[in-house]
Design a protein that fits this description.
alpha/beta, 7 strands, globular, disordered C terminus
């Protein structure tokens, strides 16, 4: 007997927050503040941007970031778009990160600027990555492709 009588989908987590608490404030490091309604808009824009940057349903998208507002948006946008979210554990050694990324068949990598030195240390040995997208507060975010 299944534990739930309905499918557990990531979009349902967001939908419940939108129904029950649309104006609940989300705060990241006291730098970024928005509510669930705005989060939903940002997730939808991010999903559209992923599609425009070449991500297709089924693609594995790696995210190398802190537990930030951008990671939260990625957490929802990638699977809701139809991609496969691969959260990269940046606490591993560079060799271990390289191994997991190659093993996961990552195609697109979203990387926080703080982790560029880590990625640059093995980028030439990534076998399936086609594009890197920089996660930053700056306007321009596409760094290679």
């Amino acid at each position: 007997m299944p534990a739930y009588k309905y499918p557990l989908l990531i979009k349902d987590l967001l939908r419940m927050a939108l129904i029950k608490r649309p104006d609940q404030e989300i705060v990241y490091r006291d730098m970024v503040r928005f509510n669930y309604r705005t989060l939903n808009e940002r997730i939808n824009r991010f999903g559209n941007a992923l599609g425009k940057s070449g991500v297709k349903p089924g693609d594995v998208v790696a995210v190398i970031d802190y537990d930030s507002h951008r990671y939260l948006e990625s957490f929802f946008a990638i699977p809701m778009f139809g991609g496969v979210l691969h959260t990269v554990n940046w606490r591993l050694s560079p060799e271990q990160v390289l191994y997991t990324m190659n093993r996961a068949d990552d195609r697109i990598v979203l990387v926080n600027a703080d982790f560029l030195p880590l990625v640059e240390s093995f980028a030439d040995r990534l076998t399936t990555v086609e594009k890197f997208i920089l996660l930053t507060d700056e306007k321009k975010s596409l760094i290679a492709g």
